[in-house]
């Protein structure tokens, strides 16, 4: 520890000790480092009822990031620490999202699989090239998708089919460049995110050893890129509309490629907005082990929002999912159920969701939702009295959600 002459002079006459001065200096360093850090987060709880079909935890659609069939539940508590980038050309900062609660284990980033996990933890940097390139180094949310992990930022309580065939988080490096007011581009590299037949959000996750040949993650990296176009002010009522596309590719014989396109469309009626998304997942052969084969799954979704006033809105979503392999369809079609045994390919599912949202209390988002799911071939869902066999082609959900944001 290096002290200035004033501190050394005070120590010489016994006014202060060097030990206390060192501790004070360290405290000031910590306070300086944290002076621009903000703490925020939310508490997410819900109640879910599945009348008729979809009552089994194993055989209901993956409505949420976790599965809470027929229960009142705490979903997740998120605590965020954030020091955003300032306007300096060589700015630096960081961001951390900590998840606590049942959905934390579903995230897949907990080393012990418990109810505490990291969602994001990255260093933020800027390099003064062009308009400035912003970097994320660490664990960050995926760059594709109409919906995200933060439920309160999504139009509906339950997640879409499209969300469930996308990755969630990556461990790597991401560069973001704001070329103009209407064009933003992202490009990054991450550890392998597709292994053993499914996306893995695990921190430093590099898949099973047989999928990377013992050569480490960078022998089969995940590469990602995608631009976003935003309609400028000169577009009148269409200003703020967006078009985003992206590709995420995990190389190797056990890899997969995701293609995504999403659009948000304002209308001349200020209270009414539309949106849409398209997801395509291609899984290469042997992605779930030698000889298991690959396949393709695609999903198209449409969204609409009508804001009656600044507190009340109605959000609608409709989807169609199609998969030509058991590997990709199993998450939705219950391949162990009657009529959906291994080898039943080219299955499809549809869903319609209506969500009424009202902000009655300060900082609290409240929702009620009804959802209908339908499997087009066979019986994809268990009834409330059945736990192992699909007896229903339809599944219903009635849900309520409350989120407090701090």
Question: What are the salient characteristics of this protein?
Answer:
single chain, 18 strands, 16-stranded antiparallel β-barrel, 6 helices, 2 domains, mainly beta
How many helices? The count is 6
**Which structural class should the secondary elements be placed in?**
mainly beta
CATH superfamily of the largest domain: Porin
CATH class membership of the largest domain: Mainly Beta
Could you spell the SSE succession in H and E letters?
A: HHEEEHEEHEEEEHEEEEEEHEEE
Mean pLDDT across all amino acids: 80
| CATH architecture label of the largest domain | Beta Barrel
**CATH domain fold name of the largest domain:** Porin
Rg over CA atoms: 24 Å
Helicity level, as a percent range?
A: 10-25%
Percentage of β-strand residues: 35-45%
Uncertain stretches of 5 or more adjacent residues:
207-217, 325-332, 334-344
Question: How many structural units, i.e. domains?
Answer: 2
Beta-strand segment tally? 18
Q: Give the biggest sheet.
A: 16 strands, antiparallel, barrel
Separation, N- and C-terminal Cα atoms: 39 Å
The strands making up the biggest β-sheet line up spatially as 1-2-3-4-5-6-7-10-11-12-13-14-15-16-17-18
**Any idea what the shape is?**
globular
């Amino acid at each position: 520890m290096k002290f200035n002459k004033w501190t050394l002079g005070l120590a010489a006459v016994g006014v202060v000790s060097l030990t206390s001065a060192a501790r004070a200096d360290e405290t000031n360093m910590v306070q300086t480092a944290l002076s621009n850090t903000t703490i925020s987060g939310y508490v997410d709880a819900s109640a879910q009822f599945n009348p008729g079909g979809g009552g089994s935890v194993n055989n209901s659609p993956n409505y949420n990031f976790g599965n809470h069939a027929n229960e009142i539940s705490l979903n997740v508590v998120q605590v965020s620490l954030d020091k955003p980038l300032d306007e300096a050309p060589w700015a630096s900062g960081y961001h951390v999202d900590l998840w606590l609660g049942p959905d934390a284990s579903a995230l897949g980033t907990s080393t012990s699989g418990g109810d505490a996990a990291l969602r994001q933890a990255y260093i933020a940097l800027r390099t003064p090239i062009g308009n400035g390139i912003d970097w994320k180094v660490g664990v960050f949310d995926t760059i594709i998708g109409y919906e995200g992990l933060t439920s309160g930022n999504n139009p509906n309580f339950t997640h879409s089919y499209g969300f469930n065939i996308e990755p969630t988080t990556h461990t790597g490096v991401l560069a973001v460049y704001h070329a103009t007011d209407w064009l933003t581009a992202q490009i990054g590299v991450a550890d392998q995110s597709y292994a053993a037949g499914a996306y893995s959000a695990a921190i430093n996750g590099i898949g099973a050893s047989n999928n990377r040949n013992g050569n480490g993650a960078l022998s089969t990296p995940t590469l990602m890129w995608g631009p976003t176009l935003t309609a400028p002010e000169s577009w009148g009522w269409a200003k703020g509309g967006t078009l985003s596309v992206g590709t995420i590719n995990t190389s190797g014989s056990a890899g997969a490629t995701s293609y995504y396109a999403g659009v948000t469309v304002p209308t001349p009626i200020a209270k009414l907005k539309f949106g849409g998304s398209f997801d395509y997942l291609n899984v290469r052969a042997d992605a779930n082990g030698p000889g298991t084969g690959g396949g393709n799954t695609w999903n198209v979704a449409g969204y609409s929002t009508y804001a009656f006033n600044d507190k009340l809105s109605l959000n609608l979503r409709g989807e169609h999912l199609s998969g030509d392999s058991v590997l990709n369809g199993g998450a939705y079609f219950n391949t162990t159920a009657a009529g959906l045994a291994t080898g039943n390919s080219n299955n499809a599912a549809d869903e319609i969701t209506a969500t009424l949202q009202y902000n009655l209390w300060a900082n609290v988002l409240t929702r009620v939702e009804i959802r209908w799911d339908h499997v087009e071939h066979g019986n994809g869902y268990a009834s409330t009295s059945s736990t192992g066999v699909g007896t229903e082609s339809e599944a219903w959900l009635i849900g309520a959600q409350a989120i407090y944001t701090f």
